[in-house]
Amino acid sequence: MWRRAGLSWRWNMHRRLCTAAPRQIVDEGDWFYSSEWWGSESESEFNGNTVFHTVSEKGNGIVSVLAYPSSRPNRVYWPETEKWLQQRYAEIDPGYEHNGHFRILGYQWRVLRFNDNTRQSTVKIMAAYRKTEPGSICIMQQAQCLAIPYVKSMVSLGLSTIASCNYDLMAAVHGKKRMHILCIGHGGGSLPLFLANKIQGAVIHTVEIDPIVIAASVQAMGFPAVSVMTPSGKRALSKPDIINEVMWKGIHERLYLYESDAEKFVVENNNLYDIIFIDAYDGDDIFPNKLWDPHCPFLKSLSDQLHPKHGTVVLNLHADTDISNPNESISYFYQRILPVGKYVSRVCKAYKDVLIGNKQTCSNGKAGSGIGFAISVPWVCNTSLVVCRGFGLSSGLVNRDMVMNTLISNSVKVEHINMSFSGQGKRLGSGDNDDMGIVARLFRAVSGSPITDVTKRAANDAAYVTQKLLKSTGKAAWYAGTTFLVLVVPLIIEMDREQQFNDMELQQQSLLGSPPPPSPPK
């Protein structure tokens, strides 16, 4: 779930997107297409068609799913997908290939909403049918498509960070080792499905408290039904049907979706996870207190189940500052970086203290080693908090240069996973080094700016994400969400903002407890 910005700002942003010069974009989940599924605040044709509508008994109010047409992929590519479905059918049910002739009806955006206004999750689905059963329509969520910027941020940051903790990420990607993942909060299921699709060794447990949300994701958002688990720990569908096998074989075996309270699930299990993703806002847009209060059992149990050498936690947080009236005449990238308010600061401090220790002591009494940082997410008012263990274990020292260089280096590994939004995919028609990767973009921005020294200094300050920063204040340590965009989303960085960097330096110095630099003599 993401926090909504002011209506006027959001409309201004969409107007800029929709009136931009036409270009071909590889990533079907690019924010450029958000105008297709955002809908309208008033009754109009842009509100979509309701395909699911039920009242939740778990605090999420009215749970609904709305459908909107999708312009991608283009119809010319449909035959290729139909051929793939037919080949999969022949592999699974040889001798009955004639039953596997599929026809695609089209693609849609499906948006999960709470209380008819909060957009909780967005996915893209494909609708198809078999020629032998034209009346039986199946829908398949497009696992490679992430439509929400903060989800892309969570994935990029989480994988880059765990790779920086001496974890062999590429071995997991190629299925040579298991990567145990926990997702708290399911929504439409785009995050666990994306991870299972891209990481062959990923085994993913997802916890969702609301059975209505689970039903919405399976019935209306194309999430594989065979991954739903019963309270006894068995699959709800003991044997997947032929269509589920065609669409999800090789993926659904590694997905486990549990209906459970997150605290109850974590306390009652003793699993060990390599990485944990948490996105658990309810229908009132509240992150439950028990999921961050250091005195509640959740965080201590989570700490016990986080791998001691490389365990990484990625948490989605809403900005808790007033951003309802930004300057609409200024591009998003020129807006002031989101400050961190008291609530987000308390959550950051709680996770840091319990998971990696306060004064080098973890909740289990063992010596702590790790870092914590947060990044503001472009386009939406969210912050991605990352807390990890093992960063700098080999030397025992963590400094700003090591953190910056290590994260940049390991972000290259994330690019090799072939995520469409990572920077590997071309943006044809952008007219600016289409093959440029995310790391190259950062260095081009730093070296090519007329304010090179200021930029480098700001980038270094932004990379200072050691325990020292969080030790006394608990505040998010990384304000440079638009500077260190290399780990968030693949947008060309605009760096000619000297005043913003000066402001950022003052914020960083405030966090470090050091006085601001003296004013130049007049």
How would you characterize this protein structure?
The chain is of the alpha/beta class and 522 residues long. The protein folds into 2 domains: 7-141, no CATH class; 149-420, Rossmann fold (3-Layer(aba) Sandwich). It is 32% helix and 19% strand. The protein has 16 helices and 14 strands. The strands form 3 sheets. The chain has a 7-stranded mixed beta sheet, sandwiched between helices. Helix 3 packs across helix 8, helix 4 packs across helix 12 and helix 10 (297-304) crosses helix 11 (342-355). The protein is globular, with a radius of gyration of 23 Å.
Topology:
Blueprint: H1 7-18, E1 24-25, H2 34-37, E2 49-55, E3 62-69, H3 78-92, E4 102-114, E5 118-130, E6 133-141, H4 149-163, H5 169-173, E7 179-184, H6 190-198, E8 202-208, H7 211-219, H8 242-248, E9 255-259, H9 262-268, E10 275-278, H10 297-304, E11 312-318, H11 342-355, E12 370-376, E13 382-389, H12 400-415, E14 427-428, H13 438-448, H14 452-462, H15 467-473, H16 498-512
Parallel strand pairs: 7-8, 7-10, 8-9, 10-11
Antiparallel strand pairs: 1-14, 2-3, 3-4, 4-5, 5-6, 11-13, 12-13
Helix pairs in contact: 3-8, 4-12, 9-10, 10-11, 11-15, 14-16
